[in-house]
Amino acid sequence: MIGTTPMLTRIVQTSLFLTILAATPAAAEPGFAHVAGSWSGNGTMQPKDGPRERVRCKAEYVAKNADQSVKLNLRCASDAYKMEMVANLDQDGTAISGNWFESEYRQGGKITGQNVNDVIEARAESNTVVALLTVRTKGSHQSFVLEAPGAWVAKVAIEFAKDGAH
Length: 166
Hints:
This protein is mostly beta strands. It contains one helix and ten strands, in the order αββββββββββ. The chain has a single domain, classed as Calycin beta-barrel core domain (Lipocalin), CATH 2.40.128. The protein has a ten-stranded antiparallel beta barrel with strand order 1-2-3-4-5-6-7-8-9-10. A hairpin with a 2-residue loop joins strand 8 and strand 9.
C-alpha cells in the first residue's frame, strides 16, 4: 500500500495536468484568413525621381490550403503610372515565403518574411530590386506600405477598406 501512494499521486497529477491542458484554448495558428477577399483603396506612389502621385488600388487575396497559402493580385494606377503585381505566399508557423511578379515593368523574384498578429512583414527581392513590405490588417481596414529605396518607385502607401464592409 505504501508503494501505491506515489503511483496514485502521479496518476492524479497527470489527470489534473491533462484536464488543464484540455481546458486551455489552443493558440490559433496564424494564417491568411484575415486578409482574404477584395480590398479597394487610395494612397500615394513616390517615384525615385519625381513628384508623389495619388494612386488608386484594388487587391484580391485568395486564401487556400486551410488559410496557410494566399495569392495576391494587386493593381494600382496613378495619372502617370500603372502597377500590376501577383504574389503567391505560403506560411509555415509564422514564417512566410513565396514569389512575386510585377507585369508592367517585368520584375519578379522571391518573398520572405513573417505573419504575426495580423501584420505581414516581408522582403521582396529580384536581381535588381529589394523592397520591404508591411501589411497591417485590423478588421475591414488595411494599410499597405512598400518601400524600395533606389528603385524606380521608392514608396507606395495605400489605405485599404475591405469591399462590402460598412
